[in-house]
Amino acid sequence: MGKHTGDAVVVAEGLRKRFGQTQALDGLDLTVPAGQVYGLLGPNGAGKSTSVRVFATLTRPDEGRATVAGHDVVREAGAVRREIGLAGQHAALDEQLTGRENLRIFGRLFHLGTKRARERADELLERFDLAHAADRLVKTYSGGMRRRLDLISSLIVSPTVLFLDEPTTGLDPRSRNEIWDTVRDLVGQGTTVLLTTQYLDEADQLAHNIAVIDTGKVIASGTPDELKARIGGRIDVTVGDAAEIAEAARALAVLAGTGAEPDIDADRGLLSVPVGADSLALPDIVRQLDQAGVKAVDVGIRKPTLDEVFLTLTGKPTTTTPEETAR
Amino acid sequence: MTAPATASPLRTGLSDGLAVMSRNLLKLKHQPGQIAATFAFPLVSVVLFGYVFGSAIPIPGGGNYREYLMPGLFVMSTVFGVMGALTVIAKDNGLGVMDRYRSMPMARSAVPFGQTAADLVIAAGSLVIMAACGLLFGWRAHNGIGATLAGFGLLLLLQYAVSWLGVFLGSLAKNEETAARIGPLIMPVTMISNIFVPTDGMPAILQAIADWNPVSAATAACRQLFGNPGLPVGDVAWPIANPVLATVGWCVLLLAVFVPLSIRRFRTAGL
């Protein structure tokens, strides 16, 4: 991370926050470069929401400092609030008003003036495809529509940084895709998005960079590919002739170079071995097997999923939905 | 587009407060049910208490029970006004609306001020409806326009004071469910008072509580200002003997405590 530290829009240094017995943040450091989606990934209670609350000026850190768009979140909270948008785990809307009325009120509270607030509400509803439901009460909206209206409520004054705290938790896949499209659209226009999620899939799809958080601090960070490379992958080989399994196993053990013995499924002629962080290229593997006299029917290098990365880094599984486990 | 440069804090505070207020008033437009309930409360109360209880309760010094009852019903509906702010603010807490407000470049005190202003407008509307119902059932204000307006003014002051209490309690509640549990507690506060029956028939301890209940002072004050029956005679507790002064005192006390507490709470909650 931090290739363009000069352009960092969110910077945290040694953030600590305790709530009663819980150390929610325990020395969190973070640098979020401008113009990208930055994912904060971690299990429940890892400190993701607390860090977003600190950045959004809702919670004061006990120790450490944080700046958003160059402003200190404690001393210049007012200036920070003019640069940010926040959409949380709930749809923070008035259910007894229509979508349009909600946006108009928020627009007035952003000091656009009554007339401009009206125009802006109409623009946003049109652009984000909610115009058809604009005059219905929010309580009649589906979960996905509420979340989308909530998201666009945080865009009334185009924010420099948008904080999305688990924006798709509990949404169906289609609504989730709509939120993802909106986020990509925003980043395309220069907004920086800090996204917290428990869904590895979401981080993999959206985030340019990821910080894995556990027990209140960052335990790993990088691009999704970098994180996957850190724990290495596996080589899977299928041989056509069961007699070649022993030869293939020997060759694979040498290739892997980790001292690990391949897992063997003799009935199906399958061999699988973990490889280190320095991934091997496919032609090298085929050549080595060939030299060992093994006729491989199928050879594959499998990158670890972010789930495996997460499990390796934190020692505990994330909460995943069935469709992600099936990936 | 970027946020416009801020004008003077007072001006933005005022416009933020107006936005929060109009949000609350806009809701009424979509809730004909609530407006109907506002109508129904005085109608049902007058029928229920006025005709059912009224047939068996003698008024000290004589007089029509419904004339005796109306000032109490005005006070009762005013005190129940605490639920308005309480419910809205608690619900906003639960849905995260409060967090959104607090992450926006608006004046944080706009929420309590806007909320209580909206409550005041709504209360004024429902007092008009109640008074119309009262007139229908034979209630009259006998002391001229000045005293009558003073009576309603006092009711609005009381409403404003309990509204701030509601804002504060709401800001402590995590969500709407917590708020709903507070509702039933208001009932005894209105019952242990002189709204429905004279307090001198109550056991001594209960009578002392009832006499010092702000609800009783407010009811006695309205009876005095509207010239309705049931005015205290002989040796009575101080708040009942000086009801207008006592009511104003209670309101000032409530406001002096809960305005600063609420504003502080909105500035610092969650920090």
UniProtKB/TrEMBL annotation, chain A:
PROSITE patterns with a match to the protein in the record: ABC_TRANSPORTER_1, ABC_TRANSPORTER_2
Residue intervals of the ABC transporter domain: 10-240
Any Pfam family: ABC_tran
Major localization listed first in the record, in broad terms: membrane
GO molecular function ontology, one term from the record: ATP binding
Keywords: Antibiotic resistance, ATP-binding, Cell membrane, Membrane, Nucleotide-binding, Translocase, Transport
Signal sequence region: none
Subcellular compartments: Cell membrane
Family: Belongs to the ABC transporter superfamily. Drug exporter-1 (DrugE1) (TC 3.A.1.105) family.
Name of this protein: ATP-binding cassette domain-containing protein
Species annotation: Prauserella endophytica
TrEMBL record, chain B:
Predominant location category: membrane
Protein name: Transport permease protein
Sequence intervals crossing the membrane: 35-57, 69-90, 111-139, 145-167, 240-263
Keywords: Antibiotic resistance, Cell membrane, Membrane, Transmembrane, Transmembrane helix, Transport
InterPro entries the record matches: ABC2_TM, ABC2_TM_bact-type, ABC_2_transport, Nod_factor_ABC_transporter
Entry keyword Oxidoreductase: no
Subcellular location: Cell membrane; Membrane
Membership in a protein family: Belongs to the ABC-2 integral membrane protein family.
Membrane topology, record value: Multi-pass membrane protein
Pfam families, sorted: ABC2_membrane
Species annotation: Prauserella endophytica
The organism's place on the tree of life at top rank: Bacteria
ABC transmembrane type-2 domain residues: 33-269
